[in-house]
Inverse folding.
């Protein structure tokens, strides 16, 4: 109990710096979430809508599927969007988005046609297309992009229905039937597009669900910065020579002392997690759909994944703290690790937009799996969210974060033993 009291005293002594870290980063994440909510919540709720024409680029990387998906999308969307060409290059894609050359870029990944066919025939979750550009549009462009993503989701849903009805039709044949049916019914018309929530189409998620997912992903930075900082401060206080001498002569085993310290660190991490969760839900509640629009399953899965990530960050701080560096050095390490994790995880830059070599490296970091798990809980990323959790991918991402936590704790205990022996030999 005395160990826990001392750890809480250390926490209280550094509460001001912790609040500065926490409040500034959480407010930043909240403002980004509110901005996304305003764009996502600007949809016209009338039955008949006349959107401006959007500019669309389709990049089809599915050579294994003979580029059938890209050809089908071009044929279906040519009547409702201005389709332009963008080179399949990371720099060219970024330039097209930054200069607003296109409102939306659709990227068809390798193997998409085969994955789509299997999912459609087996009744599984449809694979996601890569979408970019929607979140950065102005108000008028946002309306056209929202309508365009609705058309894409509706086309994929209709394509699945045709393939379920005719198990002999391949993707190209099914797409031709959908395109012909839409042309006959006048669905693809610039004059007026009537939004129908009929069976077989994929409805868009409420803005609150999209804001909830994106804000939880952005919360990676506040969680890492605040939790790692306070855990390292507590660990560093117990690693002071005077404290270590008292622990050495105490009747309490050293392992028990460190377990109590780690327990206090985990409780502090949970409090920070609750703060970030509350801010995220407040942001979501201000958007169209409110809290109820998020969905019970996606919200519970996201909360669980974020909780595991918070404990993982606490174990990372425990590991870093065992090296007994100065407070300035540890603050520098925390800031560097948090910034790198936020950039490489996909919280700020979409994961699919990163170069292949960078994605390979980023997958070694726990932040990648945290952001992936958040979006898996909502069934996709960006405008392609379905609201149906991908349980397999979410469970894999969350399990990996738990393994990272165990590995950091084990490594921290090993480092603590070696450092203690080294210090004792020098003294």
């Amino acid at each position: 109990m005395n160990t826990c009291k001392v750890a809480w005293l250390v926490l209280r002594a550094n509460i001001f710096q912790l609040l500065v870290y926490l409040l500034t980063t959480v407010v930043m994440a909240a403002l980004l979430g509110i901005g996304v909510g305003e764009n996502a919540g600007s949809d016209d709720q009338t039955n008949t809508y006349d959107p401006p024409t959007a500019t669309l680029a389709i990049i089809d990387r599915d050579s294994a599927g003979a580029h059938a998906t890209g050809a089908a999308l071009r044929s279906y969307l040519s009547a409702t969007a201005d389709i332009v060409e963008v080179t399949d290059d990371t720099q060219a894609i970024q330039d097209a988005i930054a200069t607003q050359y296109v409102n939306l870029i659709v990227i068809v990944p390798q193997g998409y046609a085969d994955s789509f066919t299997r999912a459609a025939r087996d009744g599984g979750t449809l694979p996601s297309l890569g979408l970019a550009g929607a979140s950065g549009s102005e108000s008028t462009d946002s309306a056209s992009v929202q309508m365009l993503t609705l058309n894409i989701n509706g086309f994929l849903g209709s394509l699945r229905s045709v393939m379920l009805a005719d198990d002999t039709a391949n993707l190209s044949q099914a797409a031709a039937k959908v395109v012909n049916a839409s042309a006959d019914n006048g669905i693809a018309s610039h004059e007026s597009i009537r939004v129908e929530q009929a069976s077989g189409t994929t409805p868009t998620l409420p803005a609150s669900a999209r804001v909830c997912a994106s804000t939880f992903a952005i919360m990676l930075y506040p969680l890492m910065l605040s939790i790692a900082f306070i855990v390292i401060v507590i660990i560093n206080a117990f690693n002071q020579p005077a404290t270590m001498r008292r622990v050495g002569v105490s009747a309490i085993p050293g392992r028990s002392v460190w377990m109590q310290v780690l327990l206090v660190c985990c409780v502090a991490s949970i409090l920070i997690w609750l703060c970030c969760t509350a801010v995220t839900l407040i942001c979501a509640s201000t958007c169209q759909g409110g809290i109820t629009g998020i969905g019970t399953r996606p919200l519970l899965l996201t909360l669980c994944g974020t909780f595991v990530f918070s404990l993982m960050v606490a174990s990372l701080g425990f590991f870093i703290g065992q090296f007994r560096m100065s407070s300035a050095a540890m603050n520098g390490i925390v800031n560097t690790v948090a910034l790198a994790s936020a950039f490489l995880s996909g919280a700020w830059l979409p994961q699919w937009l990163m170069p292949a070599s960078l994605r390979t490296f980023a997958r070694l970091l726990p932040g990648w799996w945290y952001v992936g798990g958040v979006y898996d809980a909502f069934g996709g990323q960006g405008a392609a969210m379905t609201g149906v959790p991908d349980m397999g991918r979410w469970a894999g991402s969350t399990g990996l974060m738990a393994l990272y936590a165990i590995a950091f704790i084990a490594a921290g205990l090993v480092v603590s033993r070696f450092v203690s022996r080294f210090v004792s030999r020098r003294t």
